[in-house]
Structure formats: structure tokens, C-alpha cells
Amino acid sequence: MDSTRTTRSTLRSRRTWSAVGLAAVTALALAGCSDDRSATDSGDAAQSSTASPPPDLAAGQVAPDGATSDVVSGLEAPWSVVPVGDDGDAFVSERDSARVLELRADGSTREVGTVAGVRHGGEGGLLGLALHDDDLFVYSTAEDGNRIQRYELTGDTGSWRLGDATTVIDGLPANTFHDGGRIAFGPDGMLYASVGDAGNRSEAQDRDSLAGKILRMTPDGAVPDDNPFDGSPVWSLGHRNVQGMGWAADGTMFAAEFGENRWDELNVVEPGKDYGWPEVEGTGGEDRGFVDPVQQWSTDEASPSGLTVIGDTVFVANLKGESVRGVPVSDPSTATEYFAGDFGRIRTVLPGPDDTLWFVTNNTDGRGDPRDGDDRIVSVPLTTGS
């Protein structure tokens, strides 16, 4: 009993690098491939690029500034990552193997555990991770649909293990595509989850269906009293496939969303609002009662997945667009593109330790062209405008 209390206290004290504490989410995404495997002894080739901030970087805006370096390489279909403490340690999910890995600051990885009952196929599998109150929350695809589970963590740095699992919510719409999968705790302490339309387009407009929605729940899965629809976990509707969520310091919620054939979207999410899918894709829905995106990109240049907010900048990872975009919170209709084509598909972004940005490649997921050393987590220094 005493050792358990000590472990939990240690984990709490190391949360200073949490996505919520930095007004960011995660949403965020990656995985590892072997126990106790270090990037420095894997033989994988290093890959690097250099970024420069825009010359007109405004006060409070954040931008990559300098050369990249690999945090770890040789990962397989990484999807989500959540930091543990402020020293560069993190938990990582592998989509296809259903393993959760512990990543150490030295680039080594070890298996924390395997999530039981995960059905891998297409875009489904082990997806989002989130940390809250010393428990690891996991979004995954099972035989009877997508689900969110809460795992008690045991052990400590270098020896974390998955303990008992409790189901938070299950039976969420699932398919081999459009599974959503991002989970994050907002600044209000509530659990947010993105659920894709799972190919059932019309259900995104049905308030009684959880397909094509962003959900908001208590950590135990109960419906908060101040949700927009009585007795429903639905926070917003009319989404096709949201895979990135994050909050600015003033509480503004941003979400990145995959379009179909024309427009991918960056939305400001408000409770009870309808974002138009499948009636409208991109802008042009306001006169029909839908909320227009604050920015849209052609599907050929984006496929936005993970999202995080650092300072006054929203960073968005792009899969098909193979880049990281920086979007000012104060003017989310504009963007600066970084690393275009340098690292292939990018699944997620998150704040790293010591004023860095981490981003995660996704070239081994069956849709990319793996390069020597893929997949990898990459770090780049950040600078803030003054």
C-alpha cells in the first residue's frame, strides 16, 4: 500500500510536461518496436532538416528554429504519444501490435503492456492515449466497436506496467476507416474523444448516434451536467474524421478534420455546434446553420491528423501533405508550413521538453514509403516571438 502511494506521487510530480499543462493536447501519436531498444544502437540512419521562423513572427507566436534531431527511430506504425514528466520520457502506442511502450529520454524503449482484445485492420487498432490522475486512458478498436479504457499504472520510471483495465465507454462506431481515435483531457478536466463517422455518413448529423462526433465525458464516462444535449456525451456533431484536438490558453478548442475529396479543415469547436458533414465539406455552410472551418486545405496537401497548441500557435501534423503547419491562434486563417516532404507522412505533434516541438512520422503504416530508420520521433527547437 505504501509503495503504491509513493509511485502515484512520483507520477504526479512528473506531470509538469503534460499536454494539458502546456495548454496543448494531444491528441498526439506514435509507437515503438522493441523492448529496451535504443536509437543510438539500432543502426538506423539519422535524418535531419532545418527550420527557420517566419521573419514576421508576432509576439507570443511560436515557431521551429534550428536543426532537427531524432528522439528515437525504428518505430512501427506509431499513433499516439503522451509525455510522462519533464525529462523526455513518454508513453507510445503501436497501432497494429496494440503495444504500449515506455520511451526514455535516451531513446530506449520497453514494453509497458499490450492492450487486450484489439482488432487491427485498416485505420483501426490501438490509437489514442491520454494520462489523467495516474491512469492511462486508451482508445482502441475491439470486435464490437471502438472503446475507451482506463488502465491503472503500476511501477515507476523504467518499470511502468499496465494494471487493471476499466471500460469508460464502448460500442463506439468502428470500421476499417474513419475511426477518429484521439482522446485528450481539456482544461476543464473532462475527457474529450473524437469518433469518426465510420463510413456511415448520415449518422454524423444524427444526435442519437455517436458517429461523426466529438464527445465530452467525466473521467469515469458519465455525461457532465453542462453538456449541450441532456444525457448525451455529444459535444459537437457533423464531423467526418477528427484526429487532432487542442486548447489555447484562453480555452478556445481547435480540431483538425479529414475531408473527403475536396477540403480538410481546421475548426474552432464550440458546444452543441454542427460542423456540416456530410451536407457540406469546407466552407459554405453558414447560411444553412453549420459552422465553417477557420481554415481549409485541399485534401492533396493536408490530411491533418495530430494537433497541439504551444503558446499562441496551433501546430498541425499532415499525413498526405507531409508537413507540420503552424497556425496563429489570433489569426487561424493563416499558416506557415515546415519540413514539407522532408520526413514523409507526419501523424502527430506535441510539446517536447526544453522548449522543443516533437513530431512523429507514419511511413510504416501501410500508406507511406518507409525510409531508412522509419518510423521516428523528431525533435526541433522552438523560438517565441517578442
TrEMBL record:
<feature type="region of interest" description="Disordered">
    <location>
        <begin position="34"/>
        <end position="71"/>
    </location>
</feature>
<feature type="signal peptide">
    <location>
        <begin position="1"/>
        <end position="31"/>
    </location>
</feature>
<dbReference type="Pfam" id="PF07995">
    <property type="entry name" value="GSDH"/>
</dbReference>
<keyword id="KW-0732">Signal</keyword>
<feature type="domain" description="Glucose/Sorbosone dehydrogenase">
    <location>
        <begin position="75"/>
        <end position="367"/>
    </location>
</feature>
<feature type="region of interest" description="Disordered">
    <location>
        <begin position="362"/>
        <end position="386"/>
    </location>
</feature>
<dbReference type="InterPro" id="IPR012938">
    <property type="entry name" value="Glc/Sorbosone_DH"/>
</dbReference>
<feature type="compositionally biased region" description="Basic and acidic residues">
    <location>
        <begin position="366"/>
        <end position="377"/>
    </location>
</feature>
<protein>
    <submittedName>
        <fullName>PQQ-dependent sugar dehydrogenase</fullName>
    </submittedName>
</protein>
<dbReference type="InterPro" id="IPR011042">
    <property type="entry name" value="6-blade_b-propeller_TolB-like"/>
</dbReference>
<dbReference type="InterPro" id="IPR011041">
    <property type="entry name" value="Quinoprot_gluc/sorb_DH_b-prop"/>
</dbReference>
